UniProtKB/TrEMBL annotation:
SUPFAM superfamilies: NagB/RpiA/CoA transferase-like
Residue ranges occupied by any Glucosamine/galactosamine-6-phosphate isomerase domain in the UniProt entry: 20-251
E.C. code: 3.1.1.31
InterPro entries (UniProt xref): 6-phosphogluconolactonase_DevB (IPR005900), 6PGL (IPR039104), Glc/Gal-6P_isomerase (IPR006148), NagB/RpiA_transferase-like (IPR037171)
Lineage: Eukaryota, Viridiplantae, Streptophyta, Embryophyta, Tracheophyta
Name of protein: Probable 6-phosphogluconolactonase
Superkingdom of this protein's organism: Eukaryota
Catalytic activity: 6-phospho-D-glucono-1,5-lactone + H2O = 6-phospho-D-gluconate + H(+)
Pathway membership: Carbohydrate degradation; pentose phosphate pathway; D-ribulose 5-phosphate from D-glucose 6-phosphate (oxidative stage): step 2/3
GO terms of biological process kind: carbohydrate metabolic process; pentose-phosphate shunt
Keyword Ligase set for record: no
Classification via CDD domains: 6PGL
Amino acid sequence: MSFPRVQTSRGELRIHDGLDDLSTDLVEYISEISDASVKERGVFTIALSGGSLIGLLGKLCDAPYSRTIDWAKWYIFWVDERVVAKSHADSNYKLAKDGLLTKVPVIPSHVHSINDSLSAEEAASDYEFGIRQLVKTRLIDVSDISDCPKFDLILLGMGPDGHVASLFPNHSALDVKDEWITFITDSPKPPPERITFTIPVINSASNVAVVATGGSKADAMRLAVDAGNVGPDSLGLPARMVQPATGRLVWFVDQQAASKLNEIEFSK
């Protein structure tokens, strides 16, 4: 099955009729990047987000992907994490573990989650230290234009307010440029304490995918994607700040999330 792909000034836009079609396209996209990364570098480094995004990855557990993906070469990280116990219902690690990681033959030592016994600040520093060690060994690639890690793929969801990872509109974490991982203790959404990749790290990835579904995301999608929406509301929107420096950006959205995009986006 093929899906329409529209190239815009804000990346490639893929609009799907429903969640099943979107999920099918998303897992095929992930599989293709995994295969290419393993062929080129011998490993595949992927950073996951939480929320409804994980539910859309379920088809990775089924044929043909359960057999064709080289799971032993996957190294898994989290774009952001709630600073709670790994067994907590709010844990992004638990969400991914229950929905994906226990159903595919990923090597446990290749799964890099945060130390949940630390404070938010300590957990962010510890997580960054671990990633820096893997960059030194080149298991994680390094950006061509900065010292940031260059993940093969970063998967992001987008909230109705346009937040990505745990980077929220008008939050000071958006301004962090000299750290790879930062922390917040006042998230607008509970739980309040979180760690998150910074914008420079997200924009250093080889591939970034943003997933947005449902009518509640329509206004944020318009501000994030429409080339004509350049103003205070859009420029400060975390989702619009996602713009890989040398990598590829793809938006996976359903018809409801895309319902307020201007027609110009579909004619390019």
